[in-house]
Design brief:
CATH superfamily of the largest domain: Response regulator
Number of strands: 12
Strand order of the largest sheet: 2-1-3-4-5-11
CATH architecture of the largest domain: 3-Layer(aba) Sandwich
CATH class of the largest domain: Alpha Beta
CATH topology of the largest domain: Rossmann fold
Number of domains: 2
Distance between the termini: 51 Å
Strand content: 15-25%
Shape: elongated
Order of helices and strands: EHHEHEHEEHEHEHEHEHEHEE
Low-confidence stretches: 260-264
Structural class: alpha/beta
Helix content: 25-40%
Mean pLDDT: 92
Length: 288
């Protein structure tokens, strides 16, 4: 494929309500644009809403309307990355792709991030640790659940599948799941939520049930987004380098276009647990 448009696509197959309501995406786009701007490349946002939309999008990209594409928030065994790679369209995936998919990717160590969070809760003496997962057709949600299970097994705490609740990376899904668990008489003394938004939803359910955070239930989220500082108490959270993820995705795509030096075929970025008031541990950032 010959580059000729000086523009690349960012494909996000999510509803527009999630695209503009989830703080992850603006931060990712900010990182991507910081690199593309220096390379005089324009970013085109593409949001397919159905399988039909993705089929049309695949043909659009293969036809050379853009020089390449970055894909994030993929669900299941999405065929688009392989479809593009097999037709020599430069492509980079944000997140762990389906095994065997021949594409460059940039991911965050979600297993380690979740492991850090749950180890922290266990270190505080918590043993009935509820987790609210993201959609389990997404690699990030799968990996965060894996990290949770590793930490529980490591501490020799009995695995209890009833403590694994399904969410959708948003506040409403987590609030409803935790409210239902409480109404059914479920016992827990901590929550690890796979996103900050879900952590806030869980905290709402906990407070509505007359319990205190962190005295009765310690809570840790994931992302370390602006939501973490807006909650009361401030939310302990796993910080993932979202802007850096965007920058690395853009660099990887530009390398395929011959605009910069080659980069490793895969990049996995580290995480950091930021402790604040919601878990009751010693704060790792001053004033929190």
């Amino acid at each position: 494929m010959t580059r000729r448009t000086d523009s690349v696509g960012l494909v996000i197959p999510e509803p527009t309500t999630k695209l503009f309501g989830d703080p992850f995406f603006p931060r990712l786009i900010r990182g991507i644009n910081s690199v593309l701007g220096e390379a005089d490349q324009l970013l085109v946002l593409l949001t397919p809403q159905s399988t039909h939309d993705e089929d049309q999008l695949g043909q659009y990209l293969v036809s050379g309307h853009l020089d390449g594409a970055m894909l994030v928030s993929l669900h299941g065994a999405d065929p688009l990355p392989s479809f593009l790679a097999e037709r020599d369209v430069p492509v980079v995936v944000g997140g762990r792709p389906t095994p065997g998919t021949p594409v460059d990717f940039v991911d965050v160590d979600n297993v380690q991030g979740a492991l850090q969070a749950v180890r922290h809760l266990i270190s505080l003496g918590r043993r009935r640790i509820l987790t609210v997962t993201g959609p389990l057709d997404m690699a990030a949600a799968q990996d965060r659940l894996t990290g949770y299970r590793f930490a529980v097994a490591e501490a020799r705490i009995d695995q209890d599948a009833s403590l694994e609740l399904s969410g959708d990376f948003d506040q409403a899904s987590a609030r409803e799941a935790v409210e239902k668990f409480i109404a059914a008489g479920g016992r827990f003394d901590a929550v690890f939520a796979a996103s900050d938004a879900m952590a806030l939803g869980a905290m709402t359910a906990i407070v509505r049930a007359g319990r205190r955070v962190p005295q009765d239930v310690a809570v840790v989220g994931y992302d370390d987004s602006a939501l973490a500082l807006s909650s009361d108490p401030p939310l302990s959270s796993v910080r993932q380098p979202i802007e850096e993820m965007g920058r690395e995705m853009a660099r990887a795509l530009l390398a395929q276009l011959g605009k910069s030096r080659p980069v490793p075929r895969s990049v996995v970025l580290g995480t950091e647990l930021v402790v604040r008031g919601s878990s009751g541990g010693d704060a790792t950032e001053r004033g929190e």
